[in-house]
Design goal:
126 residues; alpha+beta; 47% strand; Nuclear transport factor 2 family protein
C-alpha cells in the first residue's frame, strides 16, 4: 500500500467509525515528535494522539469526509499531503460541519505508512 492509499483508508475508517489510532506512528510514550492538530485540539505524543483518537471514535458518529483536492508526494520512506475536505460529524446529538484544510506527513515504518504529523484547520476567509 502506498501513502495515498493509507490516507484514503484513514478517511474511510473515519466515515465508518472504525479505529483511527493505528494509523499514527507508535513511538515511545515520552516522545513528543508525533503531533495531531484537529479543528479544536492539539495532541502531542504517540500515547496522547492515540488516546484522543480512541475518545473521538467513541464519542462521535455519522462522519462525512468529502475529499476535494488530495495531493500526495511520496519519496522513499517519507510522504506529505494536503487536501481540502468537507467534514461533518455528530457528537452528543449536535451536528458539526466545516470546510477544512488538511496537511500532514507520513513515514514508512515496518512495511506500513503511518502518520507522524497531521494538521486539520477550518477554512475561513478573513
Amino acid at each position: 500500500m502506498d501513502a495515498r492509499a493509507t490516507i484514503h483508508d484513514y478517511y474511510d475508517s473515519l466515515r465508518h467509525g472504525a479505529p483511527l489510532d493505528t494509523f499514527f506512528a507508535d513511538d515511545r510514550p515520552d516522545d513528543d515528535a508525533i503531533v495531531k492538530c484537529g479543528v479544536s485540539e492539539r495532541l502531542v505524543g504517540s500515547d496522547t494522539v492515540q488516546e484522543g483518537l480512541r475518545d473521538q471514535t467513541a464519542s462521535t458518529s455519522d462522519w462525512t469526509v468529502d475529499s476535494r483536492d488530495l495531493r500526495v508526494t511520496q519519496r522513499d520512506a517519507v510522504a506529505w499531503f494536503s487536501d481540502d475536505v468537507g467534514l461533518a460529524w455528530t457528537e452528543t446529538d449536535e451536528r458539526y460541519e466545516f470546510d477544512t484544510r488538511w496537511s500532514g506527513t507520513l513515514e514508512h515504518r515496518s512495511g506500513d505508512w503511518s502518520f507522524v504529523g497531521m494538521h486539520v484547520s477550518v477554512a475561513a476567509e478573513l
